[in-house]
């Protein structure tokens, strides 16, 4: 990582700004709860609705797996459409107890599973599920195919590996997921044996009204910045961003990219 280490000369409020941003960075992470930056962060939305796609594919399903459920927030929104036999996985350790606590009152269990671990065989039997949902979670296409019943559906919405690419110029580093593109995952699914039903990709913008909201976002979504990013190490760069952007009434803007893939396991 590289940043502008020197704090740019400005008014006497810089110290107070840094202190406030540091406090936001140190707030505990609770699942995918972005309420602390509500009204300070605006993000364009793709032309499709993941919720509508998910409700469509789970209609009539007897068993559903939600991969990478986060804190269970999205799964709870889909509760009315889900069958009793619904299970979630989560691989990020801070989120596992959050998901378990949130989903327990709804009768849903959480299995700890990290698709990026060295042994990433899924802890489920062959042909276990009718539907596998995956929103912004890593996966192995061959493993998803294995646990789906013949005719079963796989819906994934992914963050393109070029998401927030402007952070590379600001903070150094490089994307950890350059292979995450619709073309690549489409090809992987087809190679695994899936029939591709539908796919679409999209590009939009994410806007932060203040640097504190941006820092908080990076605390919750740390893979958008270099692994060694810290607010203090990049204090000068962050102050420069503040003075050229929010201090002038202009948001800090990044490019976001999303795509979805809907695939079916063949009947044979």
**Broad CATH class:** Alpha Beta
How many structural domains?
A: 1
Q: What's the CATH superfamily, by name?
A: Vaccinia Virus protein VP39
What is the CATH topology descriptor? Rossmann fold
SS class: alpha/beta
| CATH-scheme architecture | 3-Layer(aba) Sandwich
How far the N terminus sits from the C terminus, by CA atoms, comes to 49 Å
* Mean pLDDT score: 93
- Helix and strand succession? HEHEHEHEEHEHHEHHE
Instruction: Tell me the number of strands.
Output: 8
Explained architecture:
There is one protein chain. The chain has 9 helices and 8 strands. With about 270 residues, it is of the alpha/beta class. It has one domain: Rossmann fold (3-Layer(aba) Sandwich). α1 runs parallel beside α8. The longest helix has 12 residues. The model has no long low-confidence stretch (mean pLDDT about 95).
Descriptive key words:
268 residues, alpha/beta, Rossmann fold, eight-stranded mixed beta sheet, 24% strand, elongated
Task: Please outline what is shown here.
With 268 residues, the chain is of the alpha/beta class. The chain has a single domain (14-264), classed as Rossmann fold (3-Layer(aba) Sandwich), CATH 3.40.50.150. It has helices at residues 14-25, 50-58, 73-77, 95-103, 141-147, 166-171, 182-192, 211-220, 235-244; strands at residues 41-43, 63-67, 85-90, 109-112, 129-135, 148-159, 195-208, 252-264.
């Amino acid at each position: 990582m590289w940043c502008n280490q020197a704090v740019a000369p400005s008014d006497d409020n810089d110290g107070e700004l840094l202190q406030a941003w540091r406090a936001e960075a140190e707030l505990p992470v609770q699942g995918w709860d972005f309420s602390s930056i509500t009204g300070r962060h605006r993000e364009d939305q793709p032309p499709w609705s993941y919720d509508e796609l998910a409700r469509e594919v789970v209609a009539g399903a007897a068993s559903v797996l939600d991969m990478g459920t986060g804190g269970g927030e999205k799964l709870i929104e889909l509760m009315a459409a889900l069958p009793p036999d619904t299970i979630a996985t989560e691989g990020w350790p801070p989120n596992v107890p959050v998901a378990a606590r949130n989903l327990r009152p709804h009768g849903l269990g959480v299995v700890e599973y990290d698709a990026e671990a060295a042994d990433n065989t899924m802890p489920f039997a062959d042909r276990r599920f009718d539907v596998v949902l995956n929103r912004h979670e890593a996966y192995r296409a061959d493993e998803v195919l294995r646990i789906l019943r013949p005719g079963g559906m796989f819906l994934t919405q992914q963050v393109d590996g070029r998401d927030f690419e402007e952070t590379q110029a600001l903070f150094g580093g490089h994307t950890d997921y350059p292979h995450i593109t619709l073309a690549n995952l489409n090809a992987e699914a087809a190679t695994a044996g899936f029939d591709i039903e539908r796919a679409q990709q999209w590009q939009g913008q994410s806007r932060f009204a203040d640097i504190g909201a941006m820092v908080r976002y990076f605390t919750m979504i740390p893979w958008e910045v270099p692994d060694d990013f810290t607010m203090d190490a990049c204090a000068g760069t962050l102050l420069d961003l503040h003075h050229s952007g929010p201090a002038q009434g202009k948001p800090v803007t990044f490019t976001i990219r999303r795509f979805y893939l809907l695939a079916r396991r063949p009947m044979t």
